[in-house]
Amino acid sequence: MPKNPDVKKVLVIGSGPIVIGQAAEFDYAGTQACRSLKEEGVEVILVNSNPATIMTDKDIADKVYIEPLTAKVLEQLIEKEKPDSVLPTLGGQAGLNLGMELEESGFLAKHHVKLLGTTAATIKKAEDRQEFKDTMEKIGEPCAASLVVENVEDGVAFTNSIGYPVVLRPAYTLGGSGGGIAHNQAELEEILENGLRLSRVGQVLVERCIAGWKEIEYEVMRDGVGNCITVCNMENIDPVGVHTGDSIVVAPSQTLGDKEYQMLRSSALNIINELQITGGCNVQFALHPTSFEYCVIEVNPRVSRSSALASKATGYPIAKVAAKIALGYTLDEIKNAITGKTYASFEPTLDYCVIKLPRLPFDKFITAKRTLTTQMKATGEVMSICHNFEGALMKAIRSLEQHVDCLLSYDFSELSLEELEARLKIVDDQRIYVIAEALRKGMDYDTIHEITQIDIWFIDKLAVLVEMENALKKGPLTVELLKEAKRIEFPDNVIARLTGMEEEAVKKMRYENGIVAVYKMVDTCAAEFEASTPYYYSVYGGENEAVETKPEKKVLVLGSGPIRIGQGIEFDYCSVHATWAFAKEGYETIIINNNPETVSTDFDIADKLYFEPLTPEDVESIVNLEKPDGVVVQFGGQTAIKLTESLMKMGVPILGTSAENVDAAEDRELFDKILEECHIPRPSGGTVFTADEAKKVANELGYPVLVRPSYVLGGQGMQIAISDEEVEEFMEIINRIAQDHPILVDKYLVGKEIEVDAVCDGEDILIPGIMEHIERAGVHSGDSISVYPARSISQKVKETIAEYTRRLARALHVIGLINIQFIVCGEEVYVIEVNPRSSRTVPYISKVTGIPIVPLATKVIIGNTIRELGYEPGLQKEADYVAIKMPVFSFEKIRGAEISLGPEMKSTGECLGIAKTFNEALYKAFIGAGIDLPKHKQLIITVKDADKGEAIEIGRRFEKLGYKIYATRSTANALKEAGVNARKVNKIQQESPTVMDLILGHKIDLVIDTPTQGRDKSRDGFLIRRTAIETGVNCLTSLDTANALLTSLENTDVQNLTLIDIATI
Amino acid sequence: MKAFLILEDGTVFEGIQIGARKEIISEIVFNTSMAGYLEVLTDPSYAGQAVCMTYPLIGNYGVCKEDMESRKLWPDGFIVRELSRIPSNFRCDTTIQELLKSYDVPGIAGIDTRALTKILREKGTMNGMITTNEAYNLDEIIPKLKQYTTGKVVDIVTCEHKYELKGSKSLEDNGPISGSARYTGEKEKKPSLVRELKGVGRKVALLDLGAKDNIAKSLAARGCDVTVYPAGTKAEEIFAAKPDGIMLSNGPGDPKECASIIEEIRKLYEGDIPIFAICLGHQLMALATGADTFKMKYGHRGGNHPVKDLATGRVYISSQNHGYVVNTDKLDEKVAVPAFINVNDGTNEGLSYTGKNIFTVQFHPEACPGPQDSGDLFDRFITMMEETNNA
Catalytic: B366? Predict the structure, then answer.
């Protein structure tokens, strides 16, 4: 069927801010879809509140709205732009829900707007629990049987009908407490009784227990006439019980025979045919490990995280094809872009093995529980490709950038066999390392399998790796052994460590014996057809397929690896734009990256894509082959920066700011010298290694002080200390990981935090704008509300900032991008941090000022001057808009995580509010971040003593807005004394009703809780904050944020929003 | 022990010896299925060929003997990147290593199977040798390789005597693997892929040209009583049994080698009994009715080929294994018209015979290995039998 001629103007809904469970994959999917639609001559209107995305660039869509994703905004947008269709299936759950809301309210029908792709009825069938179950029953596809019960008798009767074991989930208890698995009637009665009591509504869900079954996923495509294919299937190494986003996943499935494979494949097709899916879809199954019995766990009637992974794993562009299907094309009409010979109706087949590992944030949330459950916790993921499983796993491990490079990276050697057995019962991110240790200690496969339910095939593969460790330890390192170690991807440094050799010696031995990486192609067809797309992965042994090219100029762009807190999608934005800019200047471009969720790893972004770990050795193998004329590191975040030194050793010219100067910015002594020479003040401080040294410096400076390791991301490990005890505590935490670099102790200054990004050509600088943070210094810049243009500093201060930026950029010989953070106290300006690289704020400031910062920086890097590029150097004229970047958090996903804001970054994403006025921009930003008040007009205030004064003013303003204020005793007293009507509530340990009961009662709009110092988890504040987050109550821990929110609430006149097309800026 | 794969063009791959320790010369082909190695090894269509699996990890779930598609292994050799050192599956009976040895099939592991596939793709299917002789002499070997042909392999693979397979009486009879049917679990009743026993009481004569067991099982799972005849059976004998329908199976080798079988098939064509043919059967019917076949550069072997039903426009993903194809340029539309084409390369995938109750397909609706999407064709065949009977 040819393209539907009625579709001329499409509104594409993005997925909004990045949160756990909904991340960069939707930028990838949305970008691909928009490009695919434009290719077809369709006018694309895009709406997404996330400014860090590539999809919100004016070259991706025709009109771009970075506006809050609410039904109201979308309605207004549809009225303004009058699209004929809406495409909601590429913006994750957020996009899908909005599309549904508009459809169900009748708004779309009223405005004659069609929902493209899968219909609303289908979405409902797939998403609504009961409808889905009924549909599955109708077509004979099994789901795990379940029933909500209100008494023990019903539970027992139901369980008797479906059989033990069953999972019990009490409704509305905090974090699922009171639930469990019952294997017999005694256990059932006990857990059920307890669960019914704990549940606030007296209900418990009794469900057939399928924990321990194999978890298998199929990615399926279906077109409007009913042609279906499966793009690939995937097997979770972690059996059912761990969210697939947190599981180790392998593609294709490894332990399924053709019978199981085809049974589930047929089931998946059966389901999408019944649901009438049009586009991409994901079906998750649980497969009994010792029978053909299976259950359908879930169907996602849209492009998902798994489809991004499947796209990268196979080379099949799911989002692109889904967009074409939405326009009316059938699968046999859409060309496979990789081969150019086959069609989208050809099922990809792999001749390699793909592994995905989750990137979990436990290094950021050290108090959080590491256990993995059905609630996803990963912020990102890495993918690796190899022609054997062991190699793919080794590559994936070192791609994580979490100080891990092999199965020995977490040390469990002190545990006895019995202790290991106990430890194996804990399902967390370290489980494969525990299994490896159990294997080292001689535990048999069956025992490990019995405890973990992990298939013995996978256990055997871990054993292969353990055996290699032992062989290397035992030595001698023969050529044969080295070959075998490299075949399963042991990196040189691990071989060196195990054999006691120098890494250089291992490398030398490899080179002398011709043991070097070769590159194979991802081609969707296992070499059956010739492919023209240079999408490569490395293996050891065999023929090299990477075609040697000798263009005039060749540049290597390093990606930023997995998405993690502190290094998000912004760096992918920068890498992609740099790549495009280099291509425009006539360079052949090469990207190395390992993140399957990103745009940069789409095969048509760079001329060549290497899907590889970003370690010196992996990069060197590519450099040896490609011999690029230069490499840029300043766009790939800390991941790329960390490789600078190694790249220089390889003899690759670093384009832009030199390595020494990158170093100078991080090296405290060098940097101090530069500041002194430039006559720029900074908060005084010192460098230390030990706690004693730290305390000495702290006492000289006077508390409070800021303690942090150098060379870190997102303020990792950074803390404000107010006493010797805290310095000791923080130093202990930092030093848990061996530090190559000294730790910094600085005087903590209270002032306004200001940030600039600038482009420097070595002589002149260009500052697109100055941003000001709403939260005072001490809250990490990534977690602060950032306002452009800065509004509360004087013109003189702005000039000083511009001048300091110029001096610093020149002193550091910056060629390209620089990011500087300042503290302004009165009219005094201090520098607190300099990053000679791209930053988190680059995408947002580019979009709101209309200045293409990354392309400019790229052109400067290859030798142009700012003037040549048509810009007058210096601070640019302020835009006509106010743009506010609001951080977005995922605290509810990470149990036990401390939510209070501090110098360590905790947000996972951001959204933008852009408007003509500050108040409207602020309102949009809060709405975009999901803080949409008022609901019940009740709030709780509990603040530390030092904040009581400010809290009074806040209380007064809320009272004026008609809010009912609750406060804990001392805060209530302070408020009352000042004439604010606050109701006193009991603390947690006191008798009911306590502050907790109030929060659990779901009648509270907001909790304002400023934490007392220290990381003590048992404190009341911690519990209050967690409870608020886990029950979906907004919780603010900074009074600055509370003030901003009040400003937004007080100015209701701004609630009639003006929508701004970014493409016109 | 070292083993070598030597190709006609002089390319030598060094790997490790697996399976039986013997030297073979055969036609080297590749299969792109990611699972289903046992079904491939037991598919009689591979007689006279050595098969290379493009998926690198083979043997992961061991060998479940009930999944064998015929009584033995047929390929002359087996070429893989890596054999799993342990099998893992609840139904596993033995390992691939042991199976290869017990059926005396040699093989080679540890070679760059992708590089081999690319050679075959670019230069076309060629002959090769698997040997453990380190002192091989290419000058002696290559002329021998060039001489090799698969020959009249149908005679080797077909059954010795005719036998019967009774049709299922209820859907519950269909076990986990027969007739593409699904397992009926104990706790949660699931219907099989076969939704109706449409063929109860129908008698089908299946001419075994190297048939995969699942052809007969697919019919039996729908209720048909199937009689399987050796390839050399005369048309008269089949007619005498008065079947409701005739199936021509898949099989190995060059269809033009089957001159005497083609003659009998011509007689079957002349009869009024509905015929459904798969793969070699499809090619032989075409040859019997005046069409031509030719050898493809490297054939279609895998489980991911899209075929389009020209009558409905629907595309199915199919299981394929063929090196020859019907030349539709020389098709007489008074005799037959294309019914299916391959979406990728436009080659013929099926014919519909004008004025006859005959339809034939190049791909494998019986799957095993591969997708079950076109299993409905068996239902179509049964409907055809019904309509003929009622007419």
Answer: yes
Residue A762 falls in which region: left (phi positive, over 0), alpha (psi -120 to 50) or beta = left
Q: Is B113 on the interface with A (CB under 8 A)?
A: yes
Instruction: State whether residue A343 sits within 8 Å of chain B by CB.
Output: yes
B279 is catalytic: yes
- 3-state DSSP call for residue B42? coil
Element (H, E) at A493: helix A492-499
Q: How far is CA A752 from the centre of its chain?
A: 28
* Range 179-208 of B in CB contact (< 8 A) with A: 180, 182-183, 185-188, 190-191, 193
Q: Is B174 on the interface with A (CB under 8 A)?
A: no
Q: What is the nearest CA distance from B143 to chain A, expressed in angstroms?
A: 26
A358-408+415-515: CATH topology is Carbamoyl Phosphate Synthetase; Chain A, domain 4 (1.10.1030)
d(CA B325, CA B295): 6
Contact across the interface for A343 and B67, Cβ inside 8 Å: no
Tokens 């064709």, located at residue: B377
Residue B44 preceded by cis peptide, ω within 30? no
- Between CA A318 and CA A21 the distance in angstroms is 19
pLDDT per residue of chain B (391 residues) written in tens, 0 to 9: 999 999 999 999 999 999 999 999 999 999 999 999 999 999 999 999 999 999 999 999 999 999 999 999 999 999 999 999 999 999 999 999 999 999 999 999 999 999 999 999 999 999 999 999 999 999 999 999 999 999 899 999 999 999 999 998 887 777 654 333 344 344 344 445 677 888 999 999 999 999 999 999 999 999 999 999 999 999 999 999 999 999 999 999 999 999 999 999 999 999 999 999 999 999 999 999 999 999 999 999 999 999 999 999 999 999 999 999 999 988 999 999 999 999 999 999 999 999 999 999 999 999 999 999 999 999 999 999 999 877 6
As a whole number of angstroms, the distance between CA A977 and CA A24 comes to 49
B155-390 is classed CATH 3.40.50.1820: no
CATH-assigned architecture of domain A663-683+749-879: 2-Layer Sandwich (3.30)
C-alpha span between A68 and B22 (Å, rounded): 71
Alpha carbons A381 and A730: distance in angstroms, whole number: 28
- Residues in A 361-390 with any Cβ partner in B closer than 8 A: 387-389
Q: Is A751 helix (H, G, I), strand (E, B) or coil?
A: coil
Q: Which among A142, A292, A332 is the nearest to B306, CB-wise?
A: A332
Q: What is the ipTM of this complex?
A: 0.96
Query: How far is the alpha carbon of A818 from chain B, nearest alpha carbon, in Å?
Result: 46
Interface touch A140/B185, C-beta < 8 Å: no
CATH class of B2-150: alpha beta
Catalytically annotated residue among B264, B279, B322, B368: B279
Chain B residues with CB-CB distance to A231 below 8 A? none
Euclidean distance between the first and the last CA atom of chain B, given in angstroms as a whole number:
65
Instruction: Tell if the CB–CB gap between A255 and B344 is shorter than 8 Å.
Output: no
pTM as predicted? 0.94
Segments making up each domain of chain A, as ranges: 9-116, 129-139+211-348, 146-208, 358-408+415-515, 546-655, 663-683+749-879, 684-748, 891-1055
How close is the nearest chain B Cα to the Cα of A92, in Å? Answer: 28
